[in-house]
Write a structure and sequence with these properties.
It holds the Pfam family EamA. This protein is an all-alpha fold and about 350 residues long. The chain has one domain.
């Protein structure tokens, strides 16, 4: 009985075409999946790199961190709600734990962005943005091991070390170069560093929380709806009582739109990447935001990159490139092997007679 059933599974597995063609088709699909995940994470970093310099430019003209938080989340939640209504997505949590995680995502995002945007006032914005990255890589690795049982691969750890070295050099450069007029003493510079590190810690917790929600079957639409609606409400309430400037000149308004689009595109692409690649790899791949961030900072604010910035960018390139190679070429072979072994479990012949009773 068992033998006949196994033969049927074997025939079902290989009856549609040549096994070699099926294997090549599987390899191609796995390659596309990894390639799309890596591409999404890299693109997310490039888009996110537009945010620091543009938002600092607008802050210099009277906008507050609460306003930037409010407008960036309002843009995204408007699109997400339209998608949810069009697809008739069920937004009711199925469990208390899921609801708690969704609320944490929204409240955490509000405070993370508040700390980060406030840090832009005390450090060169691109440097403030990259200061959080060493902590993010370490925090995400620790938290994903504790809560997701997701161990970083050796190549991911190798690339992450290079990224840590790179962003550390860039952070040091931010401490030594001439800083804006708003940072008149070292105490304010230290405050900017502290705010950036706190933002990195909160962001790492949110990244791991997102990965856990996606793994448990929560849709991206539900995560985005709760996270950005809660953050938008909190930021809107704070903006009402703290902001005095609302109308900007045309140039500043255009710069603000560019920053908001960068924030929007980077966030959406991050959610796509987290669904396809390991959370530690996604975090490291997004370090490419320093390239667009420093270029734009130089162009519109006038902060010239130092030699430490150059060495830091080189280290980040080495780390990111090594992770890209692993995710796009090596990990697909491992996944192919795992899937093939799972298929073989259906065609194994029982070796013990008692197995027929099961």
């Amino acid at each position: 009985m068992a033998r006949r059933s196994d033969d049927g599974e074997f025939e079902t597995l290989f009856q549609n075409g040549d096994p070699e063609d099926r294997r090549k088709d599987l390899n191609w699909r796995l390659w596309i999946k990894n390639y799309l995940g890596v591409t999404a994470c890299l693109a997310s970093g490039i888009f996110t790199g537009l945010v620091p310099a543009t938002f600092r430019y607008v802050q210099d003209r009277g906008y507050t961190a609460f306003q930037l938080n409010f407008f960036s989340d309002l843009l995204l939640i408007s699109v997400v709600l339209c998608v949810a209504v069009y697809n008739k997505t069920n937004l009711i949590p199925t469990s208390y734990n899921q609801a708690l995680c969704l609320v944490f995502e929204g409240v955490g995002r509000f405070f993370a962005l508040l700390c980060l945007f406030s840090a832009y006032r005390y450090l060169p914005p691109a440097n403030a943005d990259t200061v959080i990255n060493p902590g993010k890589i370490v925090f995400v690795a620790i938290l994903s091991c504790l809560f997701l049982q997701e161990i970083p691969t050796p190549v991911t750890m190798f690339g992450s070390l290079w990224c840590i070295a790179g962003v550390a050099l860039i952070g040091y450069s931010g401490m030594t170069k001439e800083v804006p007029a708003t940072t008149v003493d070292s105490e304010n510079v230290a405050l900017g560093m502290t705010l950036a590190i706190v933002a990195g810690l909160i962001t790492s917790m949110l990244t791991v929380n997102i990965k856990g929600l996606l793994s448990s079957g929560t849709t991206r639409t539900m995560i985005l709806t709760y996270a950005y609606s809660i953050s938008t409400v909190l930021a809107g309430a704070a903006t009402t009582f703290t902001s005095k400037t609302w109308i900007l000149e045309p140039t500043a308004a255009a710069v603000l739109c560019a920053g908001l689009l960068g924030q929007f595109g980077g966030t959406v692409l991050l959610y796509v990447g987290l669904k396809l690649v390991e959370v530690n790899a996604a975090t490291a791949l997004r370090q490419v935001d320093v390239f667009s961030a420093f270029g734009l900072q130089w162009a519109i604010i006038g902060f010239v990159p130092t030699i430490f910035d150059g060495f830091g960018l080189t280290c980040i390139f080495i780390g990111t490139f090594s992770i890209v190679i692993w995710e796009a070429l090596v990990s697909r072979k491992k996944e192919k092997h795992v899937r093939f072994m799972k298929e073989l479990e259906f065609i194994q012949i029982p070796t013990h007679p008692d197995d027929d009773l099961s």
